[in-house]
């Protein structure tokens, strides 16, 4: 099989270019506040905000926490609404709140609030971009396409290093937020003009469409996938799950609980033990419900008479039963998921 289409365009690389610039704006916008730290932490009598290093650290920690959590949720949302609207909505949210940072004054709590909302939008860039690559490129080119759009993160950081200090010195700190945030809306024009999924893209030649799907796998390229998701079924008491999914769910719950407990102590409720306790009890109640639901579904998989202690170690009953057909492991039930997770955990801390 030829490595390139026999005829037609290379329109998929236009899409890759759009993803590159989306990632560029993503990193450009998030870098603004780093280059303004010296201003924010400067004494008030010298024109700064008088923030302490701890207050600035709390601000960046909130962004990081919301970004980490929202990346998971954003991926689920993008699976529901599709890549075109998903990435556009993500950029609109982070651009609006990027600009909003210029209008909240010097109160650190307001910057924390806006920056947390900013992180909600930023979290959608990579899930949407990676799914777009899966929709637009055959397997043999996905690593290259991912590398190209991901290089936008370094390009955005370099642009920020050159532009933000210059803009602050000549036009003020507010204009640094406004111009970088507003720039994303220019990208949005090209996105809606040039992007559509391959099956609906009129600019895509038949030859290139066939090439994109020449080694088609299980990735779905329709705008709205089939109903149902592992995320939504976490709280359900119906159906079956295999052993791997049970362990994957428990591992995820433990990681999230440790993270939430740490954040609630250091940032969210640093001076109120009663608030910390109430928040943690509510969180544990939610986790307990998910755990019970997982155990119930695991018992369904093994049969109603299965002993409790065997639920995490024994195989499920073969074939379909009264609770449904043979369950699929889902993303949390694959060993590859956790191999990738721990690798990223160690390198991206």
If you had to describe this structure to a student in words, what would you say it looks like?
This protein has 349 residues and is an all-alpha fold. It is 68% helix and 0% strand. The protein is built from 14 helices and no strands. The chain has helices spanning 12-35, 37-40, 53-81, 83-100, 108-122, 125-136, 139-150, 152-171, 173-194, 206-212, 230-233, 243-268, 273-302, 335-347. The chain is flat and about 75 Å long. It starts with 11 loop residues before the first helix and ends with a helix. The model is unreliable at 218-230 (pLDDT under 50).
For this entry, give a set of tags.
349 residues
Write a brief caption for the model.
By secondary structure, the chain is an all-alpha fold. 68% of the residues lie in helices and 0% in strands. Helix 1 packs parallel to helix 4 and helix 1 packs antiparallel against helix 9.
- Topology pattern, helix = H, strand = E: HHHHHHHHHHHHHH
Molecular shape: flat
Radius of gyration: 23 Å
Runs in which pLDDT lies below 50 for 5 or more consecutive residues are 218-230
> Helix- and strand-based class?
mainly alpha
* Tally of DSSP helical segments: 14
* End-to-end distance: 41 Å
Strand content: under 5%
Estimated helix fraction? 55-70%
For the residues shown, what is the average pLDDT?
Answer: 85
How many DSSP-defined strands?
0
How can the largest sheet be summarized?
none
